[in-house]
Amino acid sequence: MSNFFGIIPSPPPIAAQSRVFDLKARLDWGEPALTIIDVSDRSFFNISHIMGAIPIPMNELVNRALSSLELHRDIYVYGETDDETAAAATKLRAAGFENVSELRGGVAAWKAVGYPVERNLSIDI
Questions:
Q1: CA distance 17 to 92
Q2: CA atoms 26, 32, 33, 38: torsion sign
Q3: What domains, with CATH codes, occur in the chain?
Q4: Residue among 17, 14, 19, 16 at smallest CA distance from 109
Q5: Is the distance from CB of 94 to CB of 8 less than 8 angstroms?
Q6: What are the CA-CA distances from residue 82 to residues 8, 71, 77, 78, 96 (Å)?
Q7: Is the pLDDT of residue 104 over 70?
Q8: What is the pLDDT of residues 69-94, one digit of tens each?
Q9: Who contacts 2 (Cβ-Cβ below 8 Å, separation ≥6)?
């Protein structure tokens, strides 16, 4: 029996750390079954974030993730710095999430290669 499941290859498994190219390839693959979490400050998120990213402040990260995501969900997380990204990933892994990847360089790296970003023009008061 063949292990051939179709002519469209599946994306590679999620790695502990990813480059923006890895995430973009995954998104371009279609039906990516992943979640992108931005843990940066809300004002930073409003200025610019990766298309499709959801904002979750670091202090709410574990509770909100546990209430809305399955533990085996592929999660790409990023913050304002790689240190903040690593801290967020550590929290998610400690909470039992199995497939967490730190997006190295975050939104700055994403923008640097010309990938699309979103902006929230409304101001939180």
A1: 14
A2: positive
A3: 17-70+79-114 (3.40.250.10)
A4: 19
A5: no
A6: 33, 23, 10, 7, 21
A7: yes
A8: 999 999 999 999 999 999 999 999 99
A9: none
Q: Cα-flanking dihedrals φ and ψ of residue 76, to 5°?
A: -105, 125
Beta-carbon contacts of 58 under 8 Å, excluding residues fewer than 6 positions away, are 39, 79, 84, 87, 88, 91
Residue 88's nearest CA partner among 39, 50, 48, 21 is: 39
For residue 21, the cross-strand partners are none
**Six-digit token pair at 89?**
């990933």
CB 33 within 8 A of CB 13: no
- Is pLDDT above 80 for 31? no
